[in-house]
Design goal:
Elements (H helix, E strand, L loop, with lengths): L2 H25 L53 E2 L6 E2 L1 H4 L4 E5 L16 E8 L2 E8 L6 E2 L7 H7 L5 E4 L4 H10 L6 E4 L8 E2 L9 E4 H11 L11 E3 L12 E5 L4 E7 L4 E6 L18 E7 L1 E3 L9 E3 L3 E9 L2 E9 L7 E3 L7 E3 L3 E7 L3 E5 L17
Parallel strand pairs: 3-7, 4-22, 7-8, 11-21, 15-22
Antiparallel strand pairs: 1-2, 3-5, 4-5, 6-10, 9-10, 12-13, 12-23, 13-14, 15-18, 16-17, 18-19, 19-20
Length: 398
């Protein structure tokens, strides 16, 4: 055999060995067939890497996924329900909030007062010898500033007791304080007297005492927590309906009532379907907490017997026949009807009926109740009825 032949046989042996090695490596990884095998092909002149197990095609790749991650599932919005005292649509939590009633001053140094805009119901009645006070009732709304806060009277407790409200005040008549001592732990109301809960009230420096005592909704809620007040379903007999269509509302209309030293006026505004309120020298009564006009959706005027309380001769305090019935005028949607009010017990709700004895339907929103002594000056001026609707010629109703 010549030299050339020997060299050729040697080359064949070397190449054969390499082929067997590659075949053995491939056989040891049967899953790495097809396109995955291309990873074993080295470029000319490069060194082959040592054999490593290939990743299974069923294992997740370490490269970023092209599919975007799933967005978190949004929480469903709770269905709104009517607030018991106004009919407004609110969250179930707001509808179940325990009511808060606050006694409010109405002497001229106390104006403008704070809290009107947030109240669900506002009661106004004579207090000192005929000079009135307010009781603001808050339910679905939490007010900011509230005040000036003044003292309690028994008949206001009777109205607050209709809701077992947290009842905020600064002292009171002997009759009222005796009632609160006996039944102010939730039997009638929850007593929130400033003389006990002073840390939740404050004196402002912009007014002089006693017209400078204020609190806030958060502080009143805190008193409720400390008193053990619980939220829950509220049973309230008033019913509410929607606003009258704009084209059906009257134009103008006015209500005027007079206390001993205060003259209240409501001017019906058809655009907003509200009663714009004025109080004596305040031609446009404003809520000092919000800067907005006081303008309830409903105004109720009711007559009640008042007389001297007789506990002293200096303060000229009054008592009232709060349980019973009497005449009432109910104004809503720009129209005023005459009916009656009825309250069958100290804790039952004051209800209002039309001439046929049917419960009145109020408009969704805030209600002001003007409680007047018999013999009070009152004026009810009807607005101008809207023009009859005439369908344009050529229009067809569907």
């Amino acid at each position: 055999m010549n030299r050339v032949a020997v060299i050729g046989l040697a080359l064949l042996a070397i190449l054969g060995g390499l082929g067997l090695g590659m075949f053995a490596a491939a056989a040891s990884h049967p899953a790495a067939s097809g396109p995955a095998d291309s990873g074993l092909v080295a470029a000319a002149g490069s060194t082959l890497p040592s054999a490593q197990p290939l990743p299974s095609t069923t294992e997740p790749s370490s490269s970023p996924s092209a599919t975007p991650s799933a967005s978190p599932t949004p929480k469903p919005t709770p269905a709104l329900v009517p607030a018991p005292l106004t009919g407004r649509l609110v969250t179930p939590a707001a509808a179940a909030r325990h009511p808060i009633a606050v006694m409010i001053d109405d002497l001229s140094p106390a104006r403008p007062q704070s809290g009107f805009s947030s109240a669900s119901i506002v009661w106004q009645a004579p207090a000192e010898g005929g000079i009135p006070r307010y009781m603001m009732v808050f339910q679905e709304n939490i007010p900011t500033d509230v005040g000036p806060v003044r003292s309690s009277r028994y008949y206001y407790i009777a109205w607050a007791a209709e809701l077992r409200a947290l009842y905020a005040h600064a002292g009171g008549s002997p009759q009222a304080l005796a009632t609160l001592r006996a039944k102010g732990q939730g039997q009638l109301v929850y007593n929130a007297d400033q003389f006990r809960w002073g840390s939740q009230f404050r004196r402002v420096t912009t007014r002089f005492a006693p017209h400078n005592l204020y609190t806030t909704g958060k502080q009143l809620l805190r008193i409720g927590e400390l008193q053990g007040v619980k939220n829950g379903a509220i049973k309230w007999p008033w019913t509410f309906g929607p606003d009258l269509a704009p084209e059906l509302r009257p134009t103008g209309g006015r209500i005027e009532v007079a206390y001993l030293a205060n003259k209240i006026r409501y001017d019906y505004d058809a655009r907003t379907n509200t009663y714009l309120r004025s109080n004596s020298s305040e031609k446009k009564q404003i809520d000092a907490a919000t800067g907005t006009r006081v303008a309830p959706k409903n105004v109720i005027v009711m007559l009640m017997h008042f007389g001297p309380l007789g506990d002293d001769t200096h303060h000229h305090r009054l008592e009232a026949t709060v349980v019973g019935s009497g005449p009432a005028w109910i104004a809503t949607n720009g129209k005023t009807i005459q009916g009656t009010w009825k309250k069958t017990s100290l804790t039952s709700a004051t209800r209002f009926f039309d001439k046929k004895g049917k419960p009145v339907v109020l408009t969704v929103g805030q209600t002001f109740v003007q409680v007047m002594p018999y013999g009070s000056s009152m004026t009810f001026k009807a607005g101008k009825a809207p023009a009859p609707f005439v369908r344009p010629a050529g229009k067809t109703a569907f």
